[in-house]
Design goal:
single chain; 111 residues; seven-stranded mixed beta sheet; four-stranded antiparallel beta sheet; globular
Amino acid sequence: AQLVESGGGLVQPGGSLTLSCAASGFAFSSYEMNWYRQVPGKERDRVATISSAGGGTNYAAFVKGRFTISRDNAKKMVFLRMNSLKPEDTAVYYCNWRNDWGQGTQVTVSS
């Protein structure tokens, strides 16, 4: 499988970003997908999960109400819309399927 993230960057506190992940090499529409994030020196934390058809979502407490995960099965893509960003959201964000990971995309929240 291959997962390629994009959409990271520098944003001011309170701002928004949308991350994208393009998936290939597996039956994308049959599986749930995840977003994780990692700060240097710390463990990788799960941020959000979406069910195979997109009808079910689950979020970590620290992003609930601010982030939204979605997917487009026709395009084999999963998204993470991040609103009301805080400096503590600064991390490398990874797309995940089973034991496969993308290369990550850096999100920096700073004024």
